[in-house]
Amino acid sequence: MKGNKVASRYAKALLDLAVEKNSLDQVYTDMVNVSQVLTDSKDLAAVLGSPVISPDKKATILETVFGNSCTPMSLGFLRLIVKKTRAGILPEIAGSFIEHYKKHNNILDVYLTSAVVLDNTVKEKVMAKVKAKHHGQVNLIEKIDPSLIGGFIVRMDDDQLDASIANQLTNLKNLLLN
Fold first, then answer.
1. What confidence score (pLDDT) does residue 92 get?
2. Is residue 67 within 8 Å of 78, Cβ to Cβ?
3. 150, 162, 166 from 145: Cα distances, Å
4. Are 64 and 120 in contact (CB under 8 A)?
5. Pairing with 115, which of 22, 70, 161, 177 sits 20 to 30 Å away (CA)?
6. Is the predicted pLDDT of residue 2 greater than 70, yes or no?
7. Domains, the chain
8. Which segments within 66-120 are labelled E, that is strand?
9. CB of 176 within 8 A of CB of 148?
10. C-alpha–C-alpha distance, residues 177 and 140, integer Å
């Protein structure tokens, strides 16, 4: 929990600086890149979290990996993170920055999980319902899960609508057993 609070504070500070310097979108792109690289390379994340490796070496590694793809502001931020011995929570900081960015720009991620690929009319109906409740940009993220048997699950923020056949069968089973 402590790492999340610290990560959130660093991310919020970076967001505030990026807004002040009118480079929010570029920094967002950088943090998405950092998050993706650290997710894909568990070895790099382990190196950054290692207390055995010196901060200078970590800074050199980050400069090598992100030097050509990040803005100077983001590189300076990465150097600061290493200097403050927070490189081990860099994945959390990048993820927290992405969350702060989406909140700042009123972007809502909606997760639509279904047993099969849904046609566009169903997706449009789901999106219309979501947009009626959320007055901002909606980012639809689709996932296929054959274990649902049929139907779908819509999840956004802390709300979830489970209209899957698997859920209905589970509810029917519980009703019959009680």
1. 97
2. no
3. 9, 13, 11
4. no
5. 177
6. no
7. 2-103 (1.10.520.20), 107-177 (3.40.30)
8. 107-114
9. no
10. 37
Q: Which two tokens stand for residue 55?
A: 């901060």
Number of helices (H) and strands (E) in the chain: give both, helices first.
Answer: 8, 4
| Torsion sign over Cα 92, 94, 97, 102 | negative
What is the C-alpha to C-alpha distance for residues 77 and 47, in angstroms, rounded to an integer? 18
Given the structure tokens 């929010």, which residue do they identify?
A: 24
Q: What is the pLDDT of residues 99-139, one digit of tens each?
A: 999 999 999 999 999 999 999 999 999 899 899 988 889 99
48-91 pLDDT, tens digit each: 999 999 999 999 999 999 999 999 999 999 999 999 999 999 99
Q: Where are the alpha helices (DSSP H) in 85-137?
A: 90-104, 120-133
pLDDT over 90 for what percent of the chain?
A: 88
Which tokens in the block code for residue 93?
A: 């900081």
Buried b (16+ CB within 10 A) or exposed e, 95-124: bbbbebbbeeeeebebebbbbeebeeeebe
| CA-based nearest residue to 32, from 98, 77, 80, 79 | 98
Q: Alpha-carbon distance 7 to 95, whole Å?
A: 9
Token pair recorded at residue 25 = 């979108």
Q: Which residue has the tokens 């998050």?
A: 35
